[in-house]
Amino acid sequence: MKKVLVVSAAMGEGHNATGRALDDAVKRLWPGATVDWLDTLDVMGAGVGPLFRWIYVSNVQRTPWLYEFFYRSLWRYRWFAAASKRFVGAWCGRLLARKIRELEPDLVLSTYPLGSAGLDWMRRHHRLDAPTGAWVSDFAPHPFWVYGNLDLNLVMHEQAVPPALKCVPEAKVAVSAPPVRATFRPGDRVSARRHLGLPVDAFIALVSCGSLGFGDVEDAAKELLSSHPDVVPVVVCGRNEPLQRRLRPLAEAEPRLRLLGWTDQMAAYTIASDVVVTNAGGATGLEALACGRPVLMHRPIAAHGRANAELMAEAGLAIVCDTDGELGDAVRELIAKPERWKAMAEAATRHCDSTGALEDGLRALAGITPAAAPTA
Asked: Which CATH class is domain 3-177+355-366?
């Protein structure tokens, strides 16, 4: 019976969502397999998780310039990226090694960059024999995502391969199917809308900015409402209750606006939508692509959000809406020119079809004889 370990982290829901998709795929591929989980931040010590989440939220919401500076420095100064990764890898790797020694997995799957750093350290110090892969759930890899001593670094699109190799030229990089749960797939929009009580003939714009509801969600909702009378915005606030409270008066005044908190029906809402409006390009963007839905990147958050938006746009899978009015312009264009919408939807579907199944990446990883760690 195969034993698989998922190394993730509760930093929002994206990394765990990727882990759940891999968990499902493992059990489809190897019925009877056991899947254990380790939360990287919990392993790193008491209080590390809350501290890192506070730093991340504060940087994105209050000091995006600082977050952008750190992100650009990782790219600009190779020594800085290497030193940062080695420091985190040594911290995390020593602690992960104790847990992994107890679990004795046959396969290790990482969905979180700091966890991958720890696994890379373990491999370099001959403490990790099982085949090990990292699923890069950001559309655009950055230096903290990619590691030369892991057996596979799996990116989300062919256009993500060059930046991954720029991060670490010796890394082994492959393209994965989007790591999303099987419910995220092309489906019947009309049936989904009827199931959810949404108008069948409207232009549905699903606004989802992750479980934390980051960014200019209120402005997105207002701009969508004013863009076209056929537009029905469906705003998912996730666990951001203050955001939901702020939007409630607008929803009461404008019945077209549908307001949701946390929901377990994201797949149905994505299938029901015409477009998905988001700002980071992580799990939400991948779920949209898996359902064949165009993505509108509204005022992307700093650093990785901006990089994801630019690479998705280059791949023909997203429209970037940076300034006031651009989101409304994009929606009006897609309504007026359905061939543009169709081309983007077909590009998403074609990409997902070309990558095969998530199980293919697992088979490839399981068939690898782990690379020997460097001796120096």
From this structure: alpha beta
Q: Give yes or no for residue 120 having a pLDDT over 50.
A: yes
Backbone angles phi, psi at 200, to 5 degrees: -65, -40
CA distances from 198 to 195, 213, 236, 364 (A): 8, 22, 14, 41
Q: What would the two tokens of residue 40 be? A: 């990287």
Predicted confidence (pLDDT) per residue in 334-353, tens digit: 999 999 999 999 999 999 99
By C-alpha distance, which of 217, 207, 374 is closest to 276? 207
Q: DSSP class of residue 106?
A: S
- C-alpha separations of 238 from 260, 267, 343, 364 in Å: 7, 14, 30, 35
Can you list the positions of beta strands (E) in the chain? 3-8, 34-39, 107-110, 132-135, 152-155, 173-175, 203-208, 231-236, 258-260, 275-278, 295-298, 318-321
- pLDDT 10s digits, 205-240: 999 987 677 778 999 999 999 999 999 999 999 888
Beta pairing partners, 320: 297
Tokens 């992307």 appear where?
Answer: 300
User: How many angstroms separate the CA atoms of 177 and 290, rounded?
Assistant: 9
What is the residue-wise DSSP string for 348-372? HHHHHHHT--HHHHHHHHHTPPPPP
- The residue type at 83: A
Q: What is the pLDDT of residues 37-83, one digit of tens each?
A: 999 999 999 999 999 999 988 888 889 999 999 999 999 999 999 99
- Considering the four listed CATH numbers 1.20.1560.10, 3.40.50.2000, 3.40.50.300, 3.40.640.10, the one that applies to the domain covering 189-354 is 3.40.50.2000
Residue ranges of the chain that CATH labels 3.40.50.2000: 189-354
